[in-house]
Design the sequence.
């Protein structure tokens, strides 16, 4: 192969090309970085501290409490009594429900619509008449209930409530509540009853029972829970 036709001819002329076309290395291009003035010193720590603390004010009284921003009144819970707890329990949105209590009781006849039971538990029926049995003996309370229910049926009432208490102060427990359950399942009363359930907490809770009545007597099996 002749020398003038060799591919190495290009590299032979490279040294002469570099001499004729000098270049500046990339790292040296552009304006040179300015050197710091010879008399520049780091900032004094004392001056920096004073600058940072210039807006701090002194509290004149050592025993005075520094109060933060006022809190929303709704978020403050009273601690001196159970008022707040009771108020929360009586709210319809509270997870604390009478259904979750061991004292809860309810009953319903065969074939009743489950929606009716849900409405009864939620207190969606208007109470048309109330019987209060507080302070009565079991015998007298039975007579009062019989008269009350008979008058409610004759008046074609659909929803009544009986207040019997929870028996928390009684040595024998909730006597009237248990007796009421017995009176309802009697044949003479059961034929008028559609369903019954402990009232909502705001309406008496386990100390009261709401009863739904029918317009015409029917003999149906009554299921009791609690």
Sequence:
């Amino acid at each position: 192969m002749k020398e003038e036709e060799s591919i190495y001819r290009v590299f032979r002329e490279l040294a002469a090309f570099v001499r004729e076309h000098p270049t500046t290395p990339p790292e040296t291009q552009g304006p040179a970085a300015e050197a710091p003035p010879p008399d520049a010193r780091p900032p004094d720590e004392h001056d920096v501290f004073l600058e940072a603390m210039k807006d701090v004010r002194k509290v004149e009284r050592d025993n005075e409490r520094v109060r933060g921003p006022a809190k929303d009144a709704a978020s403050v819970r009273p601690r001196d009594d159970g008022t707040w707890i009771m108020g929360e329990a009586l709210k319809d949105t509270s997870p604390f429900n009478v259904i979750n209590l061991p004292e809860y009781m309810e009953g319903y006849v065969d074939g009743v619509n489950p929606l009716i039971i849900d409405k009864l538990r939620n207190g969606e029926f208007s109470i048309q008449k109330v019987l209060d049995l507080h302070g009565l003996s079991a015998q007298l309370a039975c007579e009062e209930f019989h008269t009350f229910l008979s008058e409610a049926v004759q008046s074609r009432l659909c929803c009544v409530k009986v207040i019997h208490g929870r028996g928390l102060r009684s040595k024998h427990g909730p006597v009237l509540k248990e007796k009421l359950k017995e009176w309802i399942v009697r044949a003479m009363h059961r034929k008028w009853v559609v369903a019954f359930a402990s009232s909502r907490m705001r309406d008496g809770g386990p100390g009261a029972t709401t009863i739904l009545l029918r317009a015409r007597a029917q003999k149906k099996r009554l299921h009791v829970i609690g």
In short: Residues 197 and 208 are 9 Å apart (CA to CA). The mean pLDDT is 76. The first strand starts at residue 106 and ends at 109. DSSP finds eight helices and six strands in the chain.
